[in-house]
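Have a close read of this protein, sequence plus structure tokens, and explain what the tokens say about the fold. Thanks in advance:
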Amino acid sequence: MGELLSDYSESNYDMFGERHSLTQTDGVVYTPDAMWMVDWGLEIGRVRDDTVDEDIEL
């Protein structure tokens, strides 16, 4: 994208943990000089957690 901007994308799938999840992360990193860096990211996904008691009111 250039010297000032770079982008990234990541997929994460957890099948063997207590909470099964599938997430996608996308972002842009802006580096105007050696002292500054700004990272904008968005993570979207789904977590299925069977360890929560559904009868408990939150």
Summary: The two ends are 45 Å apart (CA to CA). The chain has no helices and three strands. The beta strands are 5-14, 19-33, 36-49. The mean pLDDT is 85.
